[in-house]
Amino acid sequence: MQRVLITNLRPQALAKLRLGYHDVAAVNPGLIYANAQGFRSDSRYGTHAAYDDIIQAASGLVWLNHQVSGQPDYVPTVLADKICGMQIAQSVLAALHHREHGGTGQHIEVPMADTMLAFNLVEHLGAAALETDGAFGSPRSLSPQRRALRTADGWMCILPQSDRNWRDFTAFVGRPELAADPRFATGPDRARNADAFYPLLAGLTGHHTSAQWQEFCDRAGIAAAPVLDLASAATTAYAREGGLLREADHPTEGRYRVIGLPVRYSAYPEPEPEPRPCPAIGQHTEEVLREAGFDPSWSATW
Predict the structure, then answer these.
(1) Angle at alpha carbon of residue 48, lines to 42 and 49, rounded to 5°
(2) pTM exceeding the 0.85 threshold for the entire prediction
(3) Residue 244 φ then ψ, to 5°
(4) For the segment 17-70, what is each residue's pLDDT rounded down to a tens digit?
(5) Sign of the CA dihedral with 80 first, then 83, 86, and 88 last
(6) CA atoms within 13 A on the CB side of 242
(7) Element (H or E) spanning 123, and its range?
């Protein structure tokens, strides 16, 4: 019976349903019980509602956007929900490993606010890592000048990160003297002077086409990529060959697209099986009741 239960209900809702950890563990002590909610259950905000936008605000992410754009913008994707989903999966896998090697079941709490704050602080702890009064934030990441570069016919991201990359870049644009400029001579120098470095780059890329830049960067070993809209990114030859966006038949809606796995396993090299559509409402009710030991006809009384 030692299985996994994952819930994102708040403590008061779980208590009302008698589905709190202690309620369930009394029946199945080997259970791995993962509870994901907005804030730590033992904190002053433990009973507060939370959604992706709330967590973006509470974890400093909206502030980071304000530092760059001057506007308290949300990230245009449900970033907190997705990051926290991955944290739940990692935590459950760690608990499964623990249990399989002689451990026990346990209660895992994954507060979204804590998860996203830790995520944001990876680079943005900044000088505060060593100084109690040091400033938070990564100067390079927070530079308002950090953006894609205009080419003669489009936009690209070009990152001459290493010192050799930088020397090759400056030679290609006919400005080799910039490699010796003390503001930009080394990687740390360029990061420290990001507000000057990024505008400098922007002024050097407009005389070549995107194709010319890609050819040069590939040859020089400089990381580069064109700026793609989402539809183009999902349908490039690269994306198609990787099978990330797959097609399948839905029993009622016809042909549809589904997102495939973005990872590959050497022990499972076969293509992914045909995607299955999301189940209809109630499709598996009787199956689940039967598996749990209940009479499936019980559902007819609901």
Answers:
(1) 135
(2) yes
(3) -70, -40
(4) 999 999 999 999 999 999 999 999 999 999 999 999 999 999 999 999 999 999
(5) negative
(6) 15
(7) helix 112-124
State residue 247 phi and psi, 5-degree precision: -120, 150
Beta-carbon neighbour count of residue 120 at 10 Å? 19
Strand pairing category for 254-259 and 245-250: antiparallel
State the pLDDT at residue 291.
81
CATH 3.40.50.10540 assigned to 4-129: yes
Instruction: Express each pLDDT in 160-211 by its tens digit.
Output: 999 999 999 999 999 999 999 999 999 999 999 999 999 999 999 999 999 9
Contact 241, 260 (CB under 8 A): no
Handedness of CA 226, 227, 232, 234 (dihedral sign): positive
State the Cα–Cα distance between residues 139 and 161, nearest whole angstrom: 16
Q: Could you tell me which residues come within 8 angstroms of residue 198 by beta carbon, excluding any fewer than 6 positions away? A: 143, 145, 146, 147
CATH number of the structural domain 143-227 = 3.30.1540.10
CA distance 261 to 222: 28
CB 4 within 8 A of CB 34: yes
**Tokens of residue 125, six digits:** 């702890």
The torsion region of residue 174 among left (phi > 0), alpha (psi -120 to 50) and beta comes to left
Domains of the chain, residue spans: 4-129, 143-227, 242-301
**What is the rounded (10 degree) CA torsion for 36, 41, 44, 49?**
40
- Region of residue 245 (left: phi > 0; alpha: psi -120 to 50; beta: else): beta
In this prediction, residue 299 carries a pLDDT of: 66
